[in-house]
Structure formats: structure tokens, C-alpha cells
Design a protein that fits this description.
Among the domains are: about 5-50; about 65-105, no CATH class. The protein is flat. It has five helices and no strands. It is mainly α and about 130 residues long. Helix 3 packs across helix 4. The relative contact order is 0.08.
């Protein structure tokens, strides 16, 4: 049941006289507080997934294990062993690795500083 449905149900119970004003206010605050906690948890999960990228420096195949290592502080070799072991479960590790290789973006490199413009010496007069 969603937050809107809960609030409507509480309002109906309050209007029918089944809830006092204090009970209604406390229940409404509890519903709104739980919705805020869920929203904060969803935002945190989204921010973690937004930081997931494939590594350019720690890669053997696609950089998936290196990217996971950067994000989770678990060494890349441990992620590689995880994918190898789960490959024996009907190829699940291979499937997960391939999907991450396709859908997880490659990390960006900082753009190099622009090279200074070459200076052309002034032409000699009369030449």
C-alpha cells in the first residue's frame, strides 16, 4: 500500500470517528516519516550506482572487476574469483559480467591540458 493510500485510509478513519485527533496526527507523522526514510535509502542506492564505472587501469577483459573494486574497496582479484566461481552456476557469472560490461560505462579520463599555440616569428620586412 502506498503512502497516498495510507493517508487516505487514515483520513477516512479520522472522519468516521475511529481515530482521535492525536492518534490521527501521530499515525500521519509515522507514515510520512517512513516515506522519508525510504526516499533517502533510494537516493543513496542511486548515488552508489551512478558512481559505478568500468576501470581503465585495473582491467583484464572489460574492467568490470576493477570498477567494482574501486566502488566497494574489495580487491579486484576477489571480484574476478567471484565471477569465475559463479560461472560454474549455469554460466551465471559470465552472464552478469557480460551484462555489466555492456551497461556499465567506462570511467572517464581527465582531458589533457591544451597544448600551447605555436608562435610564429614575425616576417622580416621586405622579404
Amino acid at each position: 500500500m502506498g503512502m497516498v493510500d495510507e493517508l487516505e485510509r487514515l483520513s477516512t478513519l479520522h472522519a468516521a470517528g475511529h481515530l482521535s485527533d492525536d492518534e490521527y496526527a501521530a499515525a500521519k507523522a509515522r507514515v510520512l516519516r517512513s516515506a522519508t526514510v525510504l526516499s533517502t535509502a533510494n537516493d543513496a542506492a542511486t548515488s552508489v550506482l551512478a558512481r559505478l564505472t568500468r576501470s581503465r587501469s585495473q582491467k583484464w577483459l572489460g574492467g568490470v572487476a576493477g570498477g567494482l573494486a574501486t566502488l566497494t574497496d574489495v580487491p579486484a582479484w576477489a571480484w574476478r574469483i567471484f565471477f569465475i566461481l559463479t560461472a560454474f552456476l549455469h554460466g551465471l557469472g559470465i552472464l552478469i559480467y557480460l551484462l555489466m560490461w555492456i551497461f556499465v560505462p567506462l570511467e572517464r579520463h581527465a582531458l589533457p591540458a591544451p597544448a600551447p599555440a605555436p608562435t610564429v616569428p614575425p616576417a622580416a620586412p621586405g622579404v
